[in-house]
Task: inverse folding
């Protein structure tokens, strides 16, 4: 192995338990991690992620195959070799492993004492800087018992990073941290990898930090695969089951008798499913899930018009490249009819470009109104309320519309407020659908 490959695993197998309880937890695992690369390993609980990490960290003896770390073969290695390898690795585990009798500062200093060329003063200075970097400058003289779980985890991370190790192994390093602290920690890890050429192998369930990885691997049933392959397989299965469940009841029929409270509850259920999908991946597409979203959006659009006492509701998606709005959901036009409206025209275009709601009392008297859709459907628009729909990053990606209050009056600010309450979660469902469409087109 060359120095450019700090971690190289070939044919690794590992069993746990004894006798009739013995089971294989790792099966023919192959992986190479070049210097400076950040690799994240995902997978369900009990899939062997932590076992893999401890084998790479020379904390557990390899049974079958080859594990070469920092130029040393670990399988069958001597105690001295294993100790030498461990001294060049930084460890962050879920249990923190802090020394309870020492302060936070003293715990971090432990990570620096392997570097005998540093003076005591230098060790203390670097330890204090690391604690400041993870937001604990005011807690450096506290013992672990006086710190929260998240603070203890940050001390452990500071200790692991302080010696600027060649290899950092992290097991769920953000598990007990809030979003801001978790981001700060992984950014610090990423900086170490980029600036020092360190290699990072990180096990996590935290989807918020996947973006720092150069590669994502997935471990399940003892086998390591690329994240893309695993996500496609798992998401297709999950969404198929979800869609089958939804198909057992026709969504249109299920939504129709609901009062406003029941409608909000059902909307929240499907919105939650869409949000979990969006957080998990943008790589997987499934026809069953697309069908469910399509059915749900159509049913919910009809119900939305009913709840808000409007004659009609619709959703447009923004096609930035073409400068158009594309009608995706409407009560009387199929999404595949390809109705497109130039972004520079129409009330919907005005809402999309301005990013603010637009209320129009008399559509045909407004020069911005585009009557094309009316002509295609025979519908006669009188009053109109258009709301920009934003994605989770706050960017406008579509427009929701209500047409004609049933009592003949124009839409008012109260209508706008109620519409906005429903349009936001429906927009999240629409974003799921849009992402699946993009994925499907990219596979053609």
Result:
């Amino acid at each position: 192995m060359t120095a450019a490959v700090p971690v190289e695993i070939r044919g690794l197998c590992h069993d746990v338990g004894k006798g009739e309880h013995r089971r294989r937890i790792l099966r023919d695992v192959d992986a190479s991690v070049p210097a400076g690369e950040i690799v994240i390993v995902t997978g369900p609980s009990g899939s062997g992620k932590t076992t893999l990490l401890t084998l790479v960290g020379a904390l557990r003896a390899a049974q079958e195959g080859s594990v070469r770390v920092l130029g040393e073969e670990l399988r069958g290695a001597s105690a001295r070799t294993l100790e030498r390898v461990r001294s060049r690795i930084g460890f962050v585990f879920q249990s923190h492993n802090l020394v309870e009798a020492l302060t936070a500062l003293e715990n971090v200093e432990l990570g620096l004492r392997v570097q005998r060329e540093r003076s005591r003063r230098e060790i203390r200075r670097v330890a204090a800087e690391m604690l400041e970097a993870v937001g604990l400058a005011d807690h450096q003289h506290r013992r672990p018992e006086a710190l929260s779980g998240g603070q203890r985890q940050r001390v452990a991370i500071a200790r692991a990073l302080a010696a600027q190790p060649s290899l950092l192994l992290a097991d769920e390093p953000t598990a007990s941290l809030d979003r801001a602290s978790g981001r700060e920690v992984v950014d610090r890890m990423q900086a170490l990898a980029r600036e020092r050429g360190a290699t990072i192998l990180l096990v996590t369930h935290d989807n918020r930090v996947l973006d720092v990885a150069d590669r994502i691997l997935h471990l399940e049933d003892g086998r390591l695969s690329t994240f893309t392959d695993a996500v496609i397989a798992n998401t297709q299965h999950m969404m198929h089951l979800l869609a089958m469940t939804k198909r057992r009841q026709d969504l249109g029929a299920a939504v129709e008798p609901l009062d406003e409270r029941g409608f909000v509850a059902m909307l929240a259920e499907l919105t939650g499913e869409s949000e979990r999908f969006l957080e998990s991946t943008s790589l997987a597409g499934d026809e069953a899930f697309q069908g469910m979203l399509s059915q749900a959006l159509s049913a919910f659009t009809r119900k939305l018009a009913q709840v808000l006492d409007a004659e009609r509701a619709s959703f447009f998606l923004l096609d930035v490249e073409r400068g158009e709005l594309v009608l995706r959901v409407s009560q009387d036009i199929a999404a595949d009819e390809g109705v497109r409206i130039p972004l520079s025209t129409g009330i919907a275009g005005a809402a999309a470009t301005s990013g603010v709601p637009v209320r129009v009392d008399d559509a045909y008297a407004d020069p911005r109104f585009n009557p094309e859709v009316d002509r295609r459907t025979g519908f006669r628009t009188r009053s109109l309320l258009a709301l920009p729909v934003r994605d989770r990053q706050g960017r406008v990606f579509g427009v929701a519309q209500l047409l004609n209050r049933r009592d003949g009056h124009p839409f008012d600010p109260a209508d706008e407020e109620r519409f906005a309450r429903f349009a936001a979660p429906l927009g999240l469902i629409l974003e799921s659908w849009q992402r699946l469409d993009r994925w499907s087109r990219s596979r053609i």
Observations:
- The radius of gyration is 28 Å.
- The chain has two domains: 7-226, 229-443.
- The first helix runs from residue 49 to 56.
